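Postdoc handover notes: sequence design on the structure in folder B. Input tokens:
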């Protein structure tokens, strides 16, 4: 009965978002309340359960996601992303432009919120396509594959970061495992698959071409690369440090403080503010305006994450979460595959990868401890499932179609297939890692 109740709630969520056009935040909130009542939470306790779930979820995530959005916006507006792309293209030469853009997409995709990243890198793709007279889909789709993988797999992006919190995973180890899986996933779903798409003719509108910044207008290469990669470097060092077995308590306390994900993002933003802003003569008031715009960009995502926390808490407070875990076990599907499958079904139904990942997480969370699943791998499994089969109910599908000026058929063949390859290969990588990781 518990599984049926949750299934009906998910169907209601799908109908509210896709048919009734209710914003995902409000839809999740409504479904959380209905689920609480249907699962037997007393009438006077439902609101408290919803509020607790929202508060607990956002407590530790708000700082990380907001600071990450600010850093990403700074990299986008300062010209650092264009500098990174220019350096890689010039270093690799014209024959390796596709691979240079993949690397650039991966580097700038780590700190950039997906919506900002897409709008930023697509004009860069078109500028290079025009300059070197290369098919835009052939060089562009691999770069977007890199962007998609970072969005679905790697902290500090909102969805993976929220999943790390929900599963009590380790941010640094999730990042390391994510990068290990991301590399072959991007290569196969990006450059290799794009070789089959050379026949797709894309004539992007000149309006979408980026205005080339001069050398004087862009930061130098070192500042651009170090600012974009600093969160990754710090989080990876934080994950490696415990394995050094340092015995000095004072040093351990200092490292524990510095390696906290919120402090990592604060350090990265402070460095970025100086390297890409103050040192180049930018006023703090100008930079503050950039940061305010960044917060506006992610407001909706923050609300969706908060509402997903309410749904999770309702399942816990009703006592049904452990029942669901037991019932799922009878299906005889490995937990990592189950997480991927639930996220994939919701993604195909709703279109939103963020909602798909967080809703799936609320359902499978009790399986983590009950069946001794590696929480870092579950983050990646659900992240992969939340990317599968992007189609006409996904805003990313239409962004890609319109920017690249393609038919729906060619969009399905290129964009939808690329996203599906990312999801399937990502799951394969998770299952392979699961053999070696305890």
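Designed sequence:
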């Amino acid at each position: 009965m518990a599984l049926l109740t949750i299934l009906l709630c998910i169907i209601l969520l799908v109908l509210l978002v896709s048919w009734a056009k209710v914003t995902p935040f409000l839809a999740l909130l409504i479904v959380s309340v209905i689920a609480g009542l249907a699962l037997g939470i007393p009438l006077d306790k439902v609101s408290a359960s919803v509020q607790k779930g929202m508060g607990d979820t956002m407590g530790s995530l708000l700082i990380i996601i907001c600071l990450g959005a600010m850093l990403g916006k700074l990299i986008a507006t300062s010209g650092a992303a264009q500098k990174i792309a220019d350096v890689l293209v010039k270093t690799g030469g014209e024959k390796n432009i596709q691979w240079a853009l993949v690397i650039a997409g991966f580097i700038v995709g780590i700190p950039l919120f997906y919506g900002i990243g897409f709008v930023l890198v697509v004009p860069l793709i078109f500028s290079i396509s025009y300059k070197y007279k290369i098919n835009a889909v052939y060089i562009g789709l691999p770069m977007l594959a890199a962007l998609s993988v970072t969005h679905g797999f790697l902290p500090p992006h909102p969805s993976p970061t929220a999943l790390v919190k929900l599963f009590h995973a380790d941010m640094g180890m999730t990042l390391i495992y994510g990068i290990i899986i991301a590399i072959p996933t991007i290569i196969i779903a990006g450059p290799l698959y794009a070789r089959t798409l050379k026949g797709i003719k894309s004539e992007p509108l000149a309006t979408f071409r980026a205005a080339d910044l001069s050398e004087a207008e862009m930061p130098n290469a070192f500042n651009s690369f170090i600012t974009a990669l600093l969160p990754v470097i710090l989080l990876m060092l934080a994950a490696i440090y415990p394995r050094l077995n340092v015995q000095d308590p004072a040093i351990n306390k200092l490292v524990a403080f510095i390696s906290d994900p919120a402090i990592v993002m604060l350090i990265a933003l402070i460095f970025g503010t100086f390297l890409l802003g103050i040192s180049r003569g930018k006023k703090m008031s100008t930079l503050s305006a950039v940061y305010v715009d960044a917060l506006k960009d992610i407001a909706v995502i923050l609300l969706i994450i908060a509402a997903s926390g309410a749904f999770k808490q309702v399942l816990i407070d009703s006592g049904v979460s452990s029942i669901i875990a037991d019932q799922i076990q009878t299906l005889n599907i490995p937990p990592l595959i189950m997480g991927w499958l639930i996220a994939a079904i919701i993604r195909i139904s709703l279109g939103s990868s963020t909602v798909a990942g967080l809703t799936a997480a609320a359902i499978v969370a009790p399986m983590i401890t009950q069946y001794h699943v590696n929480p870092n791998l579950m983050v990646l499994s659900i992240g992969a499932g939340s990317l599968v089969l992007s189609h006409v109910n996904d805003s990313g599908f239409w962004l890609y179609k319109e920017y690249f000026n393609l038919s729906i058929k060619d969009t399905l063949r290129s964009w939808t297939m690329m996203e599906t390859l990312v999801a399937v290969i990502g799951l394969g990588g998770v299952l392979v890692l699961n053999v070696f990781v305890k």
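Context for whoever picks this up: The chain has one domain: 2-436. Don't rerun without checking with the PI first.
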